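Lab intake sheet, docking and co-folding queue.

SAMPLE TYPE: protein with bound small molecule
LIGAND NAME: zinc ion
LIGAND FORMAT: SMILES
REQUESTED OUTPUT: full 3D complex as structure tokens
PRIORITY: normal
SUBMITTED BY: R.K., bench team

The fields below were copied directly from the construct record.
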Amino acid sequence: MLHENLNPMNKIISVLSALLLSSAALLHAQDPDSLYNRMQEMNEIHDDSADSTMMLVRAIDTIDTQDKYVKIILFNDHTWDYIEMERPDIDTTGLFEDWDIESIHAYRDVKISDLPEEVDLLLVDSGHHFVAPFVGRLSSTFKYRRGRPHNGVDIPLRVGDTIRSPFDGVVRYVGGGKATGGYGNLIVIRHPNGLETYYGHLSERLVAENDLVAAGEPIGLGGSTGRSTGPHLHFETRYMGKPFDPERVIDFPNGALRDTMLTIKRHYFNVGSHYGMTDKQSKAVTDAVYYRVKKGDTLGSIARKYGTSVNAICKLNGISSKKVLQIGQRLRVR
Ligand SMILES: [Zn+2]
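RESULT FIELD (auto-filled):
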């Protein structure tokens, strides 16, 4: 499928460049001429494939071929032609920023406050589609669970069920055993728009670091490795290394993409911020302050420390003022 003479990094950059270029071109999909314009550009670059009559008709669709770089273009006069994807020399430094195949998480020096207030990611276009990683009801959502952040969603499955990459991408991390702790066998894929997806508790890993994967390609088999009480897929979505609710991207029970464009807001990077919340509700949880109970703490001492009242803390946490605090328990104090 790929040219053998390229080294792996060049391969990755070439393919992603092509993906990015086509994403950029299709960003203007509302413009009915955009694909035609793009085709014209391509024909100028590839004179040998140009046909003078082609300029007079309009491209109406593209069809993928076995070669990622070659697509079939259909025109409104029922003719068709091959189009070769250009490999432009564009800046992919942003995409491969913090490209770390040794660590589970990349961008570890990036703080949430460094991120933009809002960023739009194009998830799919006519050339790049979506396939659900696994279809099913969630047994656990993106939330605090027993005082710890659960940074993804859990989908129950049978050991051996096929897990697929939802979008085109490059495998950034593959690990298991002690290295991944609770994740068990883990795969992390970085997609051309910068999004990363995580797949935990796998029984088998079918890809290796730096592998290119297409949307729908099997990447692993479901399992129960790591900290898991039964076979399920632990799935995370991260941007610049920061997790946000995967339900903002995928409707898991229906195996459907929520929208072709994903707007990520900075206040989404909080395990209390969920799909379906208004911005006001999401911001409120992001502004929340939590405290982990230490030996000797009482509701009164914690309230004094944060300049609030026992009643206010009880209300925020849905507990009674007579509740016995547990060491390590997480209390919302603001
Ligand atoms: Zn999980």
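REVIEWER NOTE: Residues 140, 150, 152, 154, 234 surround zinc ion (CB under 6 Å).
SIGN-OFF: pending second check by T.M.
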